[in-house]
Amino acid sequence: SSGSFSPTASLSLREPSELEAPLLSGPYAEVEALFFAALDDDLRRVNEVSVAETESIETSVALATGGEALLSQEEVAALYCRLAKLRSFMSLNATAVKKILKKFDKNMAGTGREPQLPSVMKRLEAEPFSVCRRRADGMAVELERAMPPDKVPRLRQLAQDALKRAGGGRESRPNVLPLALSLAAGLVVALAPLEAFEQADRPEAQRCLGVLVATVGLWLSEAVPFFATALLVPVLAVASGAVPPKLVHKTGELEQAPDIAKRVLNSMFNAVILLVLSSLVAARVVARCQLELRLA
User: Fold this and answer.
1) Which phi and psi angles does 249 have, rounded to 5°?
2) Tens of pLDDT, residues 97-132
3) Phi, psi (5° rounding) for residue 280?
4) Contact, 228 vs 197, CB < 8 A?
């Protein structure tokens, strides 16, 4: 262990009164006083949770990164996930304070009040939860060093999965009801006897409108991931007959469904796009496996 994260190095809470700002005069003084009092109270609770959890985790980190390595790899992984949740908690609260102060400054812009965001954010750097954020970042590095290099990507993935579960993140499984409703709405629009399309004798245009309705429904409902919706568009376009067939000069016959699908995909995908996507995939693989570190 580097000795930087001693469990005995306790953090002390600052008094809420230390986060003060000069009050406005006149009718806005009470509003400002209430605002900063509420902010102080929220920060006090954030500080208490952050300090308690940081000190608890530091005790375990000392066991995991000590010379004898008293924790197993599974226990280190569980500790890393717990640390990831703490880091996310402190980061979200720091972002929330920043956005709240920006909104406050915007609402007070016409009162002659100087913006409070720069000065208050500077003071927040000395708050216990900000100190805990920096210490938590250091502990994450210590835990990664305690694991074999080939296990670190998996460790980070476990932490990301833990954050998604803790935050109620959307699972990858499709939401059946919005999916069915979106597709049904598109089907109704595509097959309904609409007079405007019947008079123009353009059934393909009506089917294309049905595909558009289904696609918009899937995007708005997020029944499936956005990339899946995008990939579903050419499938729906071909399957619904929204793309009119062309005459094949060699045979003198109209295109069949496989030929239409090939034409649609060729218009959306070419060698340049393949090259760009391949480069992005290769870069992701290098970053995920940390190949640049191994080569160095």
Assistant:
1) -65, -35
2) 888 888 888 877 766 667 777 777 787 888 888 889
3) -65, -40
4) no
Q: What is the DSSP letter of 192?
A: S
For the stretch 190-220, pLDDT in tens is 888 877 777 667 788 888 889 999 999 999 9
Alpha helices in 113-246 (DSSP H): 117-124, 128-146, 152-166, 176-191, 195-200, 203-221, 226-239
Tokens 């391949």 label which residue?
278
Instruction: Decide: helix, strand or coil at residue 254.
Output: strand
For residue 24, with 0-12 CB atoms within 10 Å meaning exposed, 13-18 middle and 19 or more buried, which class applies? middle
Evaluate whether 211 touches 190 at the Cβ level (below 8 Å): yes
The pair of three-digit structure tokens given for residue 185, joined into one six-digit string:
């709405």
Neighbours of 278 (CB within 10 A): 10
Alpha-carbon gap, residue 222 to 209, rounded angstroms: 20
Whether 16 and 44 have beta carbons less than 8 Å apart is answered as yes
Please list the residues that pair with 98 across neighbouring strands. Answer: none
Q: pTM for this one? A: 0.50
Q: Cα–Cα distance between 4 and 37 in angstroms, integer?
A: 35
Distances (CA, A) of 86 to 39, 53, 63, 89: 20, 7, 19, 5
Q: Which 3 state secondary structure label does DSSP give 247?
A: strand
